[in-house]
Design a protein that fits this description.
Elements: H1 6-36, E1 38-43, H2 54-63, E2 69-74, H3 80-88, E3 94-97, H4 103-112, E4 117-121, E5 132-137, H5 139-153, E6 158-163, H6 168-188, E7 193-198, H7 205-217, E8 222-226, H8 229-241, E9 244-249, E10 260-266, H9 268-280, E11 289-292, E12 299-301, H10 308-323, H11 332-343
Protein name: Basic membrane lipoprotein
Keywords: Cell membrane, Lipoprotein, Membrane, Signal
Subcellular location: Cell membrane
Length: about 350
């Protein structure tokens, strides 16, 4: 067998080196891409996800970035602190939370873990932290429109409100709704009473049914529920009594097509998807407190069972809110001020 000349040997060696280099580069690229995928964890107060509640809408938005990030959630019966500790032990890049009553625990966790970015949904923090972002919605404004719808449709002149747990977020729903009832009542020459009850739970359908029974039997013929899964119990009772109910967060007409008058919506899934995508891609947000409202299309009310004319009238009221002609209250104090000013008109 003839010996290979030196030039051929050198060519073969170079080729082998190139092959090894390409394989090594490919391995590096694969490893590097895997390392660059961010880890995102949603931590919730409740015990589970999958019941169609508010947490599900938030998680759906976060999951939309699953192609660029490893997304998971932590739920359970443990305390919020324990669940946050479990999350931080995984050294994630981003922790999302939906705290209705554990704001302090989330902020404390953020302070203790400055390298992790925290996002709190439905909360505005007065405390500025470099690793904390909050998302809030002007739900009082869309609830005001729901109150206008209730005032238009009531025949008994008694309407109801069912909240999950008392908090600033749910109070914004309640007082925005009550103000809308009062506003439309005056325009229509009615005197409509609003009765409010809280279930002290976002997950108790039976409690929602019980409260709805009391309100419907007490004379209410329209109820606005802002109570998560508990609110589904209210909707189910609306079918039993053949009365009106107003949905919240998403269009809930599918649950009772003949009884859901309208739904006060906030595009929570789109909002969380938008913010999460920016964070996963390392895009800097312009503000620490991100507010979604009528102006960016994140809040509104669907036509549902409202007539064309009724919906048109409500959209005209929405324009007055956008223009600043109507300042919608979001708590008891601002509601009382609204009533004082409104009575003088």
């Amino acid at each position: 067998m003839k010996k290979m000349n030196n030039r051929v040997i050198v060519s073969i060696v170079i080729a082998l080196v190139l092959v090894v280099a390409i394989i090594a580069s490919a391995a590096y690229i694969i490893t590097d891409e895997k390392e660059e995928r961010k880890t995102v964890i949603l931590v919730i107060e409740e015990e589970a996800i999958g019941d169609g509640s508010y947490n599900d809408l938030v998680f759906k938005g976060i999951k939309s970035a699953s192609a660029e990030a490893n997304v998971s959630y932590i739920a359970g019966s443990e305390s919020m602190k324990d669940k946050l500790d479990k999350a931080t032990s995984q050294t994630p890049d981003i922790i999302w939370t939906v705290p209705s009553k554990t704001n302090k625990e989330v902020i404390d966790s953020a302070k203790a873990n400055p390298d992790i970015l925290y996002v709190m949904v439905d909360f505005q923090s007065e405390e500025k932290l470099d690793n904390l972002i909050t998302i809030s919605f002007n739900s009082n404004e869309s609830s005001f429109l729901g109150g206008c719808a209730a005032a238009m449709l009531t025949e008994t002149n008694v309407v109801g409100f069912v909240g999950g747990q008392e908090s600033e977020v749910i109070e914004a729903f309640e007082y925005g709704y009550k103000a809308g009832v009062d506003y439309a009542s005056k325009i229509l020459g009615k005197n409509v009473e609003t009765i409010s009850q809280y279930a002290d739970s976002f997950t108790d359908k039976d409690k929602g049914r019980t409260i709805a029974q009391e309100l419907y039997e007490g004379g209410c013929d329209v109820i606005f529920q802002a109570a998560g899964v508990t609110g589904i119990g209210v909707i189910e009772e609306a079918k039993v009594y053949d009365k009106w109910v107003i949905g919240s967060d998403s269009d809930q007409e599918y649950l009772a097509p003949d009884n859901v008058l309208t739904s006060v919506i906030k595009e929570i899934t789109k909002a969380t998807a938008l913010v999460n995508e920016q964070l996963v891609n390392d895009e800097k947000l312009a503000v620490q407190n991100v507010v979604f409202d009528f102006s960016n299309g994140a809040e509104g009310i669907v036509q549902g069972n409202l007539t064309d004319n009724q919906y048109k009238d409500i959209m005209q009221i929405k324009e007055k809110i956008l223009s600043g002609d109507i300042n919608v209250p979001d708590d008891k104090l601002s509601y009382e001020k609204f009533i004082q000013n409104f009575v003088q008109l």
